[in-house]
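Input record (one chain):
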Amino acid sequence: MSRFDAVAAAVEIAEKHIPFNQVLGLHSCTIDDDRSVHIRIDHRDELVGNVGKGFLHGGVISAALDLVGGIAAMIGAVGRDVPETEEEAAEIFSRIGTIDLRVDYLRPGVGRWYDASGLVLRTGARVAVTRMEMHNDQGSLIAVGTGTYTVGR
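The corresponding structure, as predicted from the sequence alone:
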C-alpha cells in the first residue's frame, strides 16, 4: 500500500468504520495537500444541546474537533512510518488514541452545517500534537482546540 493509499484508508475508516462518526453525521472527509483534515457535519435536531436556542451541543463540537485531530495524527503517523500493506496501515491506525484534548468554545454553534479542520503541529516517535478549528456555514469561528494523541508502539 502506498502512502497515498494509507491516507485514503484513514479517510475511509473515519467515514465508514467508526460507528460514533456515523452518529455525528460525519461526511465529506478530505485531506488537503498540506495534510490538513476537513470534515463536515450538518446541523440536525439530534445534535442540539440548547433546545431553547437550537445551539449545537458542546460535546458534538468537542467530538468533531477530536475526530479531525485524531485523523491528522493518523496522517502524521503514516508520514513517519509509511505502511506497505493494509495490515501495516491498520496496525499504525490502531495505535492512535487521545491523550489530551483542550477545546475553547468561542461562540454558540449556530448554522446549517459545520466544518471542522485539523493539522499536525508535530509528530514524534510516541506522540502527535494537533491544532483544530470549527467554523459554521457563515465562516464564523465557533471553537478551537489542541489535541495530543498517542501514535507510538
